[in-house]
Amino acid sequence: MRLLHDRPRVALAIYAHPDDADVAAGGTLARWSSLGCAVHLVVACQGDKGTHHSHEGGHDLVTRRSAEVERAGAHLGLTSVDLLGVPDGEVVNDLDLRRRLVGLIRRFRPDVVLGPDPSAVFFGGVYVNHRDHRETGWALLDAVAPAAAMPLYFPETGPAHAVRYLLLSGTHEPDAAVDVTASIEAKVAAVLEHRSQMGGETAEIGEVVRARAAQGARDLGVGFVETFRRVQFTE
Ligand SMILES: [Zn+2]
Is 178 helix (H, G, I), strand (E, B) or coil? Predict the structure, then answer.
C-alpha cells in the first residue's frame, strides 16, 4: 500500500447511487477540494429503490435523495453534481451510457477519475456487489480507456481527453491510500446527510465511518485513509 500525495487539478467521481461517492471516497474528494482541486460528481442512479419498505420508494424518495446529494456535496466542497437519473437496478454499460460518460470526461477534463471497481463481486462471503456498481464501473472503465482519449469515439461529445489515472473503490486489490485525516469529519458529515439510507443512530454511523477509515492508517503513519486500486495511464 502506497500513500498518494497527488494533488490533482481536476477530479471526476462517477458512482452508481446517491450515497456511494461519500461512503467510498468522500474524504478524498473533500481533501482535494480543500486544496483547490475542482471536484465533479456524477451519480448514475435516481436512488428510487433505496429502501426496504415498498411504500417509501418512487418519486418522493428520488426528490429526497437528490436533496441529500446536494447537501452532502456542500460538505465535500464539490464543484458540480450531475444526476444521470437512471432508475435503480437499470444501469447498463451500453453505448448510450458510455457516450454520456465520455461527454462528461471531455467536458471536465479530469486528471483522475474515481469510481467502483467492477471486478469485485463477492465480499467476505456475505455480500454480492450491487449490479449498478458493477455496470457503472465497467462503463467508466470503457469510457476512460480508450474512448474519451481517442477522437474517433463519440466525436460529437467534444475533443479527446486522456485521463492520467483511475482510483477504484470497493476493490479486492487496493494499492493506493489517500490520507483523509484532515477531511474525515467532512466525510462523516456528508455520509450523515443520506438520512433516507440510515436505520441507526447518527453517532454510531459516524463511528463506523471513522473506524473503517482508521483501518490500515496507522501502518502508513496517518490517522485516517481511504484506499483504492490505482491504474496509472500516464504520469
Ligand atoms: Zn450503491
Answer: strand
Q: For the chain, give the mean pLDDT.
A: 96
Q: Where are the alpha helices (DSSP H) in the chain?
A: 20-34, 59-76, 95-108, 131-144, 184-192, 202-214
89-116 burial code (b ≥16 CB/10 A, e <16): eebebeeebbbbbbbbbbebbbbbbbbb
Q: Are strands 165-169 and 225-232 parallel, antiparallel or unpaired?
A: antiparallel
**Ligand 1: centre distance to CA 111 (Å):** 24
Indicate whether 27 pLDDT > 90. yes
Question: Which structural domain range is residue 168 located in?
Answer: 2-232
- In CATH, what number is assigned to the domain containing residue 178? 3.40.50.10320
Ligand 1 centroid–CA 130 distance in Å is 7
Residues with beta carbon < 5 A to ion ligand 1?
16-17, 20
Looking at residue 52, what is its pLDDT? 82
Q: How many domains does the chain have?
A: 1
**pTM, full prediction:** 0.97
155 CA to middle of ligand 1, Å?
Answer: 31
Of 113, 36, 112, nearest in space to 77 by CA: 36
Cell numbers 473503517: residue: 212
Quote the ligand 1 centre to 231 CA distance (angstroms). 22
Q: Is the pLDDT of residue 57 over 80?
A: no
Per-residue pLDDT of 189-224, as tens digits, reads: 999 999 998 877 888 999 999 999 999 899 999 999
Secondary structure letter of residue 68 according to DSSP? H
**Distance of alpha carbon 78 from alpha carbon 90, whole angstroms:** 26
Mean pLDDT of 43-57: 87
